[in-house]
Write a structure and sequence with these properties.
With 143 residues, the protein is an all-alpha fold. It contains five helices and no strands.
């Protein structure tokens, strides 16, 4: 029986999510000189961990199984996540910032809610490339 720790898709997901979020926290710390617990699971920022994990998953499935149904499912999910990161979540975050500024201008005192800005195209591209590199590395390590 194989261990889950030698399962290429599982390892790719754990490494891309874990290291991706760690990189994000380090970048948050460098920029603000502080870290909050929310930063450990925050969306937005460099790199896009969502894009990294889904691109890594699609890549490792392709490398280990070829063009199977699982590969095309993973590729579809990666595409949906990428479009969401660039479009819907980015737009919603920008709208959240505008609403907050408007509320400040009219001196409406409410606690600022947490909102994510989504991702810039560079953050998404770096996430995708990071996921692919991790998948290739995991495949080489376990082959």
């Amino acid at each position: 029986m194989n261990s889950i720790w030698t399962n290429p898709p599982f390892l790719t997901l754990v490494i891309t999510a874990g290291i991706g979020q760690l990189i994000k926290v380090i970048i948050f710390y460098i920029k603000s000189r502080r870290v909050h617990l929310i930063d450990m699971v925050a969306t937005g920022g460099m790199p896009s961990t969502h894009c990294a994990t889904t691109a890594g998953l699609a890549t490792i499935i392709y490398l280990t199984e070829g063009t199977t149904t699982a590969f095309f499912i993973a590729l579809s999910i990666a595409f949906i996540i990428t479009v969401d990161a660039l479009g819907v979540r980015r737009t919603a975050g920008e709208e959240g910032q505008i609403i907050h500024r408007l509320l400040q201008k009219v001196h409406f005192k409410i606690k600022e809610p947490y909102y994510s800005l989504g991702h810039t195209p560079v953050q998404v591209l770096v996430g995708i490339l990071f996921g692919i590199v991790v998948a290739v590395g995991v495949n080489g390590l376990l082959s």
